[in-house]
Design a protein that fits this description.
Strand order of the largest sheet: 5-6-7-8-10-9
Strand content: 15-25%
Helix content: 25-40%
Distance between the termini: 19 Å
CATH class: Alpha Beta
CATH architecture: 4-Layer Sandwich
Largest sheet: 6 strands, mixed
Number of helices: 6
Order of helices and strands: EHEHEHEEEHEHEHEEE
Number of strands: 11
Oligomer: single chain
CATH topology: Purple Acid Phosphatase, chain A, domain 2
Shape: globular
Number of domains: 1
Amino acid sequence: MIYAIADLHLDITKEKDMSVFGGNWENYEEKIFKNWQATIREDDLVLIAGDISWAMKIDDVKLDLDRIEQLNGRKIILKGNHDYWWQSLSKLQSLDYKTIDFLQNNSFRYNETLIVGTRGWESRDTIGFDESDEKIFLRELNRLELSITDALAKHSDYNEIIAMMHYPPFNKKMEANEFEEIFKKYNIKKVVYGHIHGDQALKMPNGMINGIRYYCVSGDAIDFMPVLLSKEENYDKE
């Protein structure tokens, strides 16, 4: 089965206080690990859509990634805006985890499902959005398409494509933004995202919109319980 969760914000140092986002963050790491092990089986796949750890350097993040490695199931990890430790894909792959893969301009297959994605960025109607934001926004659109074309170049026999993003693919009016054009171009029917916390996360679009099923899986919005996306089984690491 395929599950998704975002915004683990792991902090093995216990130096970060997440209570500013609400009481749901009390003992959140304990919730994450307890819920995960009670829900996820060894042959399940979990999509982790960004903001994995508060670590700043790759040597430090290993402490948190090691904890994820020990959890049940396979994991595909996407970069979030707070994942400052994230370096080149080759550097991440050199960590040689057995149950963790990193999604960046590449793709993965889980039985008949292709997994693609990119971090995304703030929507164009965000206050203060400027030329530098526009460059990043366009780059993220391109990275999503690179991930999709990578998947399609490898596989012609699949049932569906699931897209992972960290930033919501919506504008401030909660309308689907330019990323939706790419989802529709490649017939993507399921999209997971996170990034938003607190009461605002509970207001984010969920469910079927314009023929695409969206899942807001920010950790606190789902009480740190991985969300089931499908019943596909078997995972091919490529």
